């Protein structure tokens, strides 16, 4: 290979964000799902450079802030995060020359904390949870300690999915998608994708997932009213499903053991929801988001559970 030909194939890390695979599930849906003609598709966001769907908004929030002149290389960035957004922001900050301070709940997994530090971020752990982390980030900004990107209220978050994830899903399904399913944390993914898909076909059904009252699932939230993300638009969501934590964990393990898709608990929740929607909608084309990779949850021990005798009857939709 000549040097000239080699150089034309070089890209930047920024160019690797997005364009993730959309794969059809082969064995997880029971035979009745396949028999009714429904197709279940998984969008593998763990294929992004920092390993999650949050690479998209992380890059877009920093890039758009640069374009507006709100930040410049060398400025301190601040963000409250439960994990994936922090890892993605730390990667983009390193890529584009920003120091960054991340605030996260103490109970987040060690893998997530280590990944942020590996990218050079300063990490502050907060005992009181995500809401307290958000409050502290805003207080630091008020004290002139840096600029908060504010994933929860920043329209650049959902715009990233309007510009990339939505168009990718439409193109990858050749416009045949009938249902889109996503766990809801900041709600950036679901609102951005919904806005795009409904512009193409208003009949596409958008289904959001939140933990039920007893569940605690990393990456998705049941927000108190005072902390509901400002970018959330209820008019873009056709249905919200409450997720049982046990079922989400069972389906997380099923994804790995029956499909070879190694992902986190929120992805298990989405996989369960997709199979339920498939049962109720013959010939549907259903896509769901696999938010991240499972390697950042290994320390939880959740993958070591034996589900061979598990009764999954509670997973069925009545």
From TrEMBL:
Record family assignment: Belongs to the cysteine synthase/cystathionine beta-synthase family.
Pathway: Amino-acid biosynthesis; L-cysteine biosynthesis; L-cysteine from L-serine: step 2/2
Protein name, entry field: Cysteine synthase
Domain of life: Bacteria
Entry keyword annotation includes Coiled coil: no
EC number per UniProt: 2.5.1.47
Catalytic activity line of the entry: O-acetyl-L-serine + hydrogen sulfide = L-cysteine + acetate
Coiled coil: none
Gene Ontology molecular-function annotations: cysteine synthase activity
Organism classification: Bacteria, Pseudomonadati, Pseudomonadota, Gammaproteobacteria, Moraxellales
Cofactor: pyridoxal 5'-phosphate
SUPFAM superfamilies recorded: Tryptophan synthase beta subunit-like PLP-dependent enzymes
Pfam families listed in its UniProt record: PALP (PF00291)
PANTHER family: CYSTATHIONINE BETA-SYNTHASE
Every Tryptophan synthase beta chain-like PALP domain range: 15-292
Keyword Transport assigned: no
Organism encoding this protein: Psychrobacter proteolyticus
Keywords assigned: Amino-acid biosynthesis, Cysteine biosynthesis, Pyridoxal phosphate, Transferase
């Amino acid at each position: 290979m000549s040097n000239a030909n080699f150089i034309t194939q070089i890209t930047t890390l920024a160019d690797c964000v997005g364009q993730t695979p959309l794969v059809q599930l082969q064995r997880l849906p029971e035979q009745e799902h396949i028999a009714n003609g429904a197709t279940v598709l998984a969008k593998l966001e763990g294929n992004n450079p920092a390993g999650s769907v949050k690479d998209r908004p992380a890059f877009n929030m920093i890039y758009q802030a640069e374009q507006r002149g709100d930040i410049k290389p060398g400025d301190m960035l601040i963000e409250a995060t439960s994990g994936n957004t922090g890892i993605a922001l730390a990667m983009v900050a390193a890529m584009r020359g920003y120091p960054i301070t991340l605030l996260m709940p103490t109970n987040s997994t060690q893998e997530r904390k280590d990944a942020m530090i590996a990218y050079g971020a300063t990490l502050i752990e907060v005992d009181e949870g995500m809401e307290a982390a958000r409050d502290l980030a805003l207080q630091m900004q008020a004290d002139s300690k840096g600029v908060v990107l504010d994933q929860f209220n920043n329209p650049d978050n959902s715009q990233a999915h309007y510009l990339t994830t939505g168009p990718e899903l439409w193109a990858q399904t050749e416009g045949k998608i009938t249902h889109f399913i996503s766990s809801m944390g900041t709600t950036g993914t679901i609102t951005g994708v919904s806005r795009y898909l409904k512009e193409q076909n208003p009949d596409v059904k958008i289904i959001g997932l939140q933990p039920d009252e007893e569940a605690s699932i990393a990456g998705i939230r049941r927000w108190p009213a005072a902390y509901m993300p400002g970018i959330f638009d209820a008019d873009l969501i056709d249905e919200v499903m409450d997720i049982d934590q046990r079922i989400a964990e069972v389906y997380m393990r099923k994804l790995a053991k029956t499909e070879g898709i190694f992902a986190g608990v929120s992805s298990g929740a989405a996989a369960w929801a997709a199979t339920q929607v498939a049962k109720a909608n013959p010939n549907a084309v259903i896509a769901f988001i696999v938010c991240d990779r499972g390697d950042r949850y290994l320390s939880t021990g959740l993958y070591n559970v034996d589900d061979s005798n598990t009764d999954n009857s509670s997973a069925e939709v009545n």
